[in-house]
Design goal:
3 copies of one chain form a homotrimer. Chain A has about 400 residues and is mainly α. Chain A has a single domain (about 35-370), classed as Ammonium transporter AmtB like domains (Ammonium transporter fold). Chain A has 15 helices and no strands. In chain A, α4 runs parallel beside α6 (about 165-185), α6 (about 165-185) runs antiparallel to α13 (about 320-335) and α9 packs across α12. The model of chain A is unreliable at about 25-30 and about 385-403 (pLDDT under 50). At the A-C interface, α1, α2, α3, α4 and α8 of A face α2, α8, α9, α12 and α15 of C. Chains A, B, C: Pfam families: Ammonium_transp (PF00909).
Chain lengths: ~400, ~400, ~400
């Protein structure tokens, strides 16, 4: 298995060397263009903060699996971004994207992969996350090509999905659920996923970092003149889902759930994605409220029932944060975007669902062949120095005379 | 009460729908202008990082109230920003602000509200934070209108307050103290506010995020050519207060206090606000040193005495971080800004103090009617899933008489 | 000692007052230039996030020394940035840098100082960190002058080091090791440096913040048109080192080490520094892989042996994260940068190594005169309110039956 990975790394290196051509079409002389690209670069950095600190810490809510979640985040980002560059240089269209656009598209792929990984978090060996990334990127790129670039001529019109409600969020979530469907074992199903005060706070940190930089995610590739409007729409949608999540959480559970607050608050960002540059403030705020209610209902009501019924575990509840709000965002575009091509939009959603489900199921089967963890949801199995918890007891005990 | 909130949300939605007109005056064709607005957008994102991650985690120093502090932060931001947009569309002046300027002004209001909430942190039910926001925003906007936009003709000249020492920091702190004056109970006064190693670290995280992005807060609405100078002034002021805080903390307490380091280090940013674009590096650094000394003296010496004397609790010590340094910044402008209108500046400060105190007291009375928490400063009362930690169970058990 | 520091602060203030002239050459009228400077400002903020949140939390891996590490970070940044401004105003060249370039150069100095401090972390009193900063900045500026600005005519050609592999990373690390060589005591050598689950997570937070903003560090002073390319190179190098670190860590240790993941993942950023604007994606990725392997080998294999052999402690392992990868980056430039002046590059590296070692050793002797801590690696000695620790003892004790 290691040789296999090394081979892939080697191939990666060779292909990356090919990639050098990516720089050819660049070097803008006109300064306004250069400054515009630097502003895109800046939003690309914001997205990177979401990928590592945001998604990474959001997944630290599994209290004994925090270091693994963060390490997996590092690996998933580091495998998917170079792979997307390789893909871009292999299948460069007639008018290749600039290097900064390619970076942002690669980050979108990484975001979708991290969403996908949330569904099976804690139940794969570390190497399997890498393989998941290697399997995911081509499937993601296939769907991107089919839905956004007219691949195979499946969709004749323009699909409205600027911030990726459909092709990033819904695709990642459904792919992840399909992988989980192939992989959940009885032991995993029966092992409780524990969180505590501290893991909740880390999770809220990740959540807030995602909230803060979400406008840059949605506005990443938008023209300069549309960036402020897009940013405000995303912020108002997030405000809407945050308020709605609080009310729905208290209503549905009787008390506030930290998990709802960390997750469903973000549903507005997911759902506004498709129409982030087309909505007006009022509709953005209302889309956010709707998404927050749907997402919180998912976490508070559907998750438990669906898990019991299906005997499958969706560790982070990606169906409720990314899947349903993503589909909602794609459908809502029909009412918000004027002059939208209804047929194209609906076909785009359907193609995404089918592609994600099929490629996800197949990927899950492939990953299942590589074996599985003995003990789910704990760092101890793969991390060094796992005397950790015991460690502290020892250390304190040994120091009692000093203290 | 819930119906009441729902009604307000509904009104919010309707008004937001009205807000659509905000986009009308936009769509700049000239690219230099568009790029300038994107740069403002970028600073708006920096401010958002301060609001959520910065203020949010700074308040996690109350160790058993961390999740509540973060949730309250989410709600306060999410209620104040849409409300400010509603206000803007209702009372649009002849020359309405661009959407990105409105966003930044809304974030300023949210910052002031978070400062205010710091004074009563841990002593309100979660819904009361929302009401606090609903009461605060109009009062804040009133003061903004009176002091900066010549409302009622109270102030004839220009008040120097680019980064909001007066109208953001001092206003928020005094409003918060006035609310606290209406609300502190004997039990709250007698319950110690506990912090520990971990809550200190979260608090330092929030502090550092505030420090890092503070220059963008002060330079948010500054012309492009003045941004670098403003940024450097703010950074030097923060360096000054950080050094001064360390020396003052050791001098006044004998040991270093993590609370001083997390809070008073930021006083330079508060105090330089008024003159951030007018000072020179030397004066900025010295303003920072002065503010750091004043703030640390407040935390180390005044806070204990004032609490005992007044029997009122200022949970986060906002008087010492935002109140005194904010007023200091407003007064210091008299010496730093050349050609300043002394009368206008002093009147502006006085109007702010009076408006904040009066509207804060009234708001406090209104909030007090809504009842209060049984157990102050603990998440357990309102949060789900408290089984998480044995620790917590133990702690709660020990507190049963109170709960 | 305090009087001494106060004197220095006073001098600092006076000099800063002199600094006002820095603003003279500014106020660009041409808006494209102003916008370019604002974009630099923006990268300067990114670097500030690295300095405080990144370096600060990376050093929190020492579990009982977290608050001290963060406070030291605050002080080191706050002393070095003003000092660098003072230096700049005292030794202004014929064509002085703009204020934003000066800020970025000052941040580079602060970064190098934080690297240096990592070598002796936990073994100096808080005041000594300040003195370390006061001693370090002139030495750093001397080397900067010798290597990059042709000081003394030592180096006749251009040294390729855009992102500071040599003059920032290697210089800081070697200076720090030299200080450590003068300072490590037997007790320090014999005291284990403990980390735990939580301190690992804080460390990973710092690591991720560094990773995210590293492209802005390398591209800080690069021309707008080269920023996207530079950013992509840095990101690909970091992806390379992250993947390599994982494989090397598992290979060399059998299990994953959280310390490797937090540190060696960043080695790609260190090593790509010299050639960040010259490499192509393929070479950037490969430089990252190489650096990740070298760095992980350093942490996993060399560190233990070298510590035992030398009886000197390098607390954060700066030799393996910054020293070796920095030198690697400087040497690799010989193969990557076309038309490079080989003599100048090698001389530049050598001058840096010698200057750092000599000035570091002398600084270490000076600092050693100021005495040392009684108990290394604990907050308790200098921090107020140390009841926190007892708390932990209680909690753990109560849990012993469970564990």
């Amino acid at each position: 298995m290691k040789n296999c990975l090394r081979l892939m790394l080697l191939i990666g290196m060779l292909l990356l060397a090919l990639c050098s051509g990516v720089y050819a079409g660049e070097a803008p002389v006109a300064s306004l263009e250069a400054l515009t690209d630097v502003q895109k670069y800046n939003r690309a950095i914001h997205i990177m903060a979401m990928l590592l600190v945001g998604f990474g810490f959001l997944m630290v809510f599994v209290r004994k699996y925090g270091r693994s979640a963060l390490t997996a985040t590092y690996l998933l980002v580091s495998v998917s971004i170079p792979l997307y560059f390789v893909k871009e240089s292999l299948f460069a269209p007639a008018a290749p994207a600039t290097i900064i656009d390619t970076l942002i598209l690669a980050e979108f792929a990484a975001a979708s992969l991290l969403i996908c990984a949330g569904a099976v978090l804690g139940r794969m060996k570390m190497q399997q996350y890498l393989f998941l990334g290697i399997l995911f990127v081509p499937c993601y790129a296939l769907n991107e090509w089919l839905v956004l670039n007219g691949g195979l001529g499946l969709i004749s019109g323009k699909v409205v999905d600027t911030g990726g409600s459909i092709v990033i969020h819904a695709f990642g979530a459904i792919f992840g659920l399909a992988v989980a469907a192939s992989m959940t074992t009885r032991q995993e199903y029966e092992t409780a996923i524990e969180s505590d005060e501290n893991s909740d706070k880390y999770s809220l940190l990740g959540s807030m970092v995602l909230w803060v930089f979400w406008p840059s995610f949605c506005a990443a590739l938008v023209a300069p003149a549309d960036v402020p409007k897009t940013g405000v729409n995303v912020i108002l949608a997030l405000c809407g889902s945050t308020l709605a999540t609080y009310f729905a959480s208290v209503k549905l559970r009787g008390k506030i759930s930290a998990a709802d607050i960390a997750n469903a608050t973000l549903a507005g960002g997911v759902a506004i994605g498709s129409t982030c540059d087309l909505a007006v403030p009022g509709s953005a705020f209302m889309i956010g409220i709707l998404a927050g209610v749907v997402s919180t209902f998912g976490f508070a009501v559907i998750q438990g029932k669906l898990t019991d019924w299906s005997k499958k575990v969706d560790t982070c509840g990606v169906l409720y944060l990314h899947g349903l709000p993503g589909l909602l965002g794609g459908v809502v575009a029909l009412f918000v975007a004027s002059g939208i091509n209804v047929g194209a939009q609906l076909t785009g959603i359907m193609v995404t669902v089918v592609t994600a489900a099929v490629t996800g199921l197949v990927s899950g089967k492939v990953l299942a062949v590589m074996g599985r963890r003995v003990a789910p949801y704990v760092d101890a199995e793969e991390f060094d120095g796992e005397e950790g918890e015991e460690d502290v007891v020892m250390a304190i005990a040994a120091e009692e005379p000093i203290a």
